[in-house]
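Human:
If only I could read backbone structure tokens as easily as an amino acid sequence. I am handing you a single protein, as its sequence and its fold in token form. I hope you can help me see how the letters and the tokens relate. Thank you; the sequence and its tokens follow:
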Amino acid sequence: MKRKTMSRQEFLKIIGFGSAAAGTGLATAKLLGTSAAGRWVQSQEQYGKFAVEQILDGSYPYEVNPAVLKPMRESMTVFSRNYWDPARIARPEVNEDLTADNLVKGKGIIPNQTRLDYALMAASWSIARADGFPAYEWQVAHSMVANYGLDKLGPWDPATLEMNWADATQAVKHAALFYGASLVGVALLNRLWIYADHFSPTDSQKSRALPQIWNAERFEKSTEGYFVPEKMNRVIALAFEEDFDALTNSPGRLASAATGNGYSRMAITSFSLAEFIRGLGFRAIPAGNNFGLSIPIAIDAGLGEVGRNGILITPKYGPRIRLAKVITDMPLLADVPIRFGVREFCETCKLCADHCPSASIPKTALTWAGNSISNNAGIRKWYINPESCYDYNGFSCSNCKRVCPFNKPNNSWLHRMIRLGIKTRIRPLGKMMVVLDQASNYGVQTQSGNFWKLKGENSITARESLGGV
């Protein structure tokens, strides 16, 4: 039986809002024209010179089946199942010791697995994995926000500084970028994307999970569950650019260093932004991969579309990003979702699937469900195999990002042409762009020896030198 897709009214009813604000998405964008669903804009800062359709009619760049789609349980993600699922615990990869093979047996000189590469990778994860780091705490930390008593002054009113909520929303975005985000957007919180439980294992209960409960005002983590007030109905989506030259070393250790650097920046930035919001008298929950699904949240916030590889594709950085979010009751104005031809291009391209060493990315058409219990059914998309993806190379692979034509810096005539081809949404032209992309040797693995000769001049801290990625 053909599944029914969700109408605008049904979707907004589930979210809990009758309408969605257009937000501040046009603040720095050039208006190119209108479309049936909204308007075409262009912005170097937001979209990296892409022409992007901002969707204003209340629809979204994805299809859902409301009869099937339910909030996912965090305990069912592949990360959580690694701790309690007997099939995951007994998998052969658990006994692999790639570090010993590369650093001891290989004496730290194996190309792309050198001691220098491992040191960069290990240090990049240091903040994200530090025990006790308060990045994802719900309450005010022992910081200057608490010392000054900023959180005790009541909710801040923008009018006191002759500002409105559009100005206040822009100020929060400014703060997010100041603290280290590469992209930021705001969305109305859709609870379909929030986990139904929180994975909280103990020594005696490896699969223990606590329910998430929405109520009037209780805001607390307890042994009964996680209590979140109904008024916390905004979410700030944060994207963090990964270093282009390090990531193109995939599946070498430098690509994992780019990943770890993203995770550590996620922790620092989301924590700092949450403290900033608390200092203005509002509640905030910072989160990385926890609390909810970051990709659909980022889509709702206008940061991009999902690709064949199951990853968010942004206009400015392609899939070369990591995601975090902050849930809050601060009444920020929501941005609108965007379209720029990702689905149409991915239907033709398939480079990520062709270069996936674990065959985790499907080459088939869009479906409504995947083959893993860690896939959440009810969305029409390409479902990857999370188990085989996680297990390859000690969870150190970014090949799908490395070969993606959206990933390339916009600093050559070829990739300006490729991006123009993506904009046109003409499938035969899309095929030609893929051929040109491969013929020019883009997507080939960068050797770590060459990376260390670059002196960092093209690192993310100097990303604008790439010509506006």
Remarks:
- Residues 137 and 286 are 7 Å apart (CA to CA).
- The chain has one domain: 8-466.
